[in-house]
Amino acid sequence: MRPHLKCSPLCADVYCSSPCNLFMSELLDPETFRTVLDALQTGVSVADRNGKILFWNQGAERLTGHKRHEVVGRSCRDNILLQCDDQGCIACGGTCPITSTLHEGKPQEAKMQLRHKEGHPVHVLMRAAPLRDPHGSIIGIVESFDEQEFAAERDRNRHTLAQHGCIDETTCIPNHEFTQFHLRKNLSSFASYHLPFGVIVIQVDRLEHFRAAYGLLASDAILRVVAQTMTNEFRPSDFVGRWTNDQFLAILINCGDHGVEKTFERIRKIVACAGLRWWSDELSVTTSVGYASVQADDTVESLLRRAQGPLERAAEKAAVSVAVGRLPSPVGSEV
Are both 169 and 314 inside the same structural domain? Predict the structure, then answer.
């Protein structure tokens, strides 16, 4: 029987010192720590006192869409981690975790939205902490950010739906057929149990004009931005799918008239945060939004007729909004 070797400072070198030291030296190798950090699904970035990014792991790439070679060596203020809310997206400034941590010298934590490279907001839990030298002076900042749990669960559900042909290939959200199935199911539940729900229709205005001006790839990209923005902003219990070529349908489950109206008002503002950097240009489209709450004896047609009514009038006034010009410090080629 081989002797059991206990790793202890008191054990004899002949039994365990050499293998233990070899094992520990490998673990303490800086490259080993770097490899471990790089492999985490959690996004991790390290910046110096001036905001220059020194480290960007695979998790950060996955969550933001920005590759390591596009961001390392650049400033965090170079439109990399734009923070979004219902008023739009802003660059790193006085309220961002890096700036706050530098000023206050203590860890910060916040739930926030980051703008993905493709243009849609991503809900994350952001944590930032100061890095100090042996004298206690701050020499840098380490940030970690995780996708909020409801978003991760939604992605798992989407993967399952894709395996059964329920996902629209262009926008990566449920396709028309599966969306129609859900709408009919909710109408049936309302007829049998009076469970309230509402629908919100989001229309991309003058999509054909946009496609003619910028091509199919650009129009598909802007549809994905709108789709992912809408998906991120509804409750986990709600359903968002593609309805027509230029329309998306959200089903607000167990939601009364007041709740449907409040959500409608919020979504009208949120879509302003969706944009697309197409090479050196910033492109965006206007959207029209309509809503309706289910009523007795409603059918798919009658419910959607009420929700889509305002869209035709709004679309007549809408125009494609395009801001063309070189943006400051673009990060890589977009989309």
Answer: yes
Let me know if residue 1 belongs to a domain: no
Decide which of 147, 175, 198 is a domain's last residue.
147
**C-alpha span between 100 and 30 (Å, rounded):** 28
Instruction: Give the list of residues 6+ apart from residue 103 with CB closer than 8 angstroms, or none.
Output: none
Q: What share of the chain is helix, strand, coil (3-state, %, to 5)?
A: 40, 25, 35
Q: 212-259 pLDDT, tens per residue?
A: 999 999 999 999 989 988 888 898 889 999 999 999 999 999 999 999
Kindly state whether residue 5 falls inside one of the protein's structural domains. no
What order of strands is seen across the sheet that includes strand 287-293? 239-244, 247-253, 197-204, 287-293
All residues at 6 or more sequence positions from 15 whose CB lies less than 8 Å from its CB, including other chains: 3, 5
Whole-model pTM?
0.64
Phi, psi of 202 (to 5 degrees): -110, 120
Encoded tokens for 235: 């409750």
* Terminal alpha carbon distance of the chain: 62
As a whole number, the mean pLDDT across the chain is 80
The answer to whether 285 and 204 are in contact (CB under 8 A) is: yes
CA nearest neighbour of 189 among 177, 179, 181: 181
Closest CA to 179 of 168, 192, 169: 168
Last residue within a domain, chosen from 121, 147, 173: 147
Cα 114 to Cα 117: distance, rounded to the nearest angstrom: 9
Residues 6+ apart with CB under 8 A from 106: 130
**CA distance linking residue 290 with residue 319, whole number of Å:** 17
Domain identity same for 166 and 120: no
In sequence order, which residues have a C-beta less than 8 Å from that of residue 3 and are 6 or more positions away?
15
Number of domains in the chain: 2
Is the pLDDT assigned to residue 306 strictly greater than 80? yes
